[in-house]
Structures are given as C-alpha cells and as structure tokens.
Design brief:
Layout: H1 12-17, H2 39-50, H3 67-77
Length: 97
C-alpha cells in the first residue's frame, strides 16, 4: 500500500477477536477504482454491488458489510499465506451470512 492511502481504523472489539494472522489494513475500497483494489477488496465490492438480502424486513436491499465482515474477508483473501480455509465462528443471528 502506498503512503498516500490511509487505512480505516478497525473497532477495538474486531482487533481483539482476531486470534491468528495479520490484522488487515482496511482502506476506503468503496471509492477506489477496481484496478486499484486487492482481491479481498474486490470480493467486498462484489458483495455490496451484487448481493441482496433474501428475506426479512430488508428483503431486496443491497447487502452492507459490517466492519468485522470486511476485516474477515480481507484477512482471508489479502494475506501472504495463500489461505485456502477461513473459519468465522460466532453465535446465531449475528450477520454472518
């Protein structure tokens, strides 16, 4: 990442929840052109532009990723270890899907 790009700070509870691997640097990926995005940022952009909520009160609305979801995606896709499996474990009904 170049020095001209600024990272968005992760909430402290998200940083504490990351047990292994590097803490991802979150940039303002929503405003960057696709050619400047990392793999993980492209995944986030795809989700927010193409995925919709399938049921419930917000059915049909675009998915908006929470900071912990973005951090998880970036940690899985944008690390030097060629991750093939990433596991997110948390209680039911916590915006995992």
């Amino acid at each position: 990442m170049s020095d001209s790009m600024t990272a968005i700070d992760l909430p402290e509870e998200v940083i504490r929840a990351i047990y292994s691997g590097p803490i991802p640097v979150i940039r303002d990926w929503e405003s960057l052109p696709i050619s400047e995005l990392t793999e993980g940022e492209k995944v986030c952009k795809f989700i927010t532009e193409w995925c919709v909520i399938p049921e419930g009160a917000k059915v049909g609305q675009s998915v908006r990723l929470a900071p912990f979801q973005v951090a998880f995606i970036l940690a899985a896709y944008d690390n030097p270890y060629d991750t093939s499996l990433a596991i997110l474990s948390m209680a039911r009904k916590n915006a995992k899907t």
